[in-house]
Amino acid sequence: MRWQLTSVNLIAAMALAVPFPVTAQAPATPSPSPELHRQFLLMALDNYQRARCEGNQPCAPASAAERATPPITDDQARAIVAAATISTMAEHCQLDWGRRNFVPLMQHYRERLKMNERQMALVGLLHGITMGAVGETVRRIPCTPEIKASTEKRLLAP
């Protein structure tokens, strides 16, 4: 599926401009496309079986109930998409996005929010899908010193 270039640009710019807390209830911030995080979440649910669940086994496909009421909240999905956008910018600027952003994100959801393996698989999948989609656009712009500094400030860990 091809995403509108302008939507991805706007979400990337918004994520860089607005600090995002990784909390169960992210603050309401204006979004250029209020449904973009939802679109990525639906993509993740469509690909649930590609993620790994308990015992490192493939997860079962999303059930009808999970599609109707996903195992993560809308606010959590929005925060994960924002974090993944920062990870994408960090990767583009050759910063350690894994150790400084992805690992702290996953630790937060596992340790503080006590998510189960299936939920954690969805968090990781949503992060990866977002990075892939946003990365298409990010790779087209140079990583300037200003972008690198701005991105570095938004990473979750030093």
The averaged pLDDT comes out at 83
Low-confidence stretches: 1-32
Main sheet attributes: strand count, strand direction, barrel closure:
none
Structural class: mainly alpha
- Helical segment count: 7
Strand content: under 5%
Query: What is the H-and-E element order?
Result: HHHHHHH
**Helical percent range?**
55-70%
Give the termini distance in whole angstroms.
Answer: 35 Å
Number of strands: 0
Give the number of domains.
Answer: 1
Overview of the structural elements:
This protein has helices at residues 5-17, 36-46, 64-68, 74-92, 97-112, 117-138, 145-154. By secondary structure, it is mainly alpha-helical. The protein has one domain (5-21, 34-154). α1 (5-17) crosses α4 and α2 (36-46) packs across α6. It is globular. Mean pLDDT is 83; it is low at 1-32.
What would you say about this model in short?
The chain is mainly α and 158 residues long. The protein has helices spanning 5-17, 36-46, 64-68, 74-92, 97-112, 117-138, 145-154.
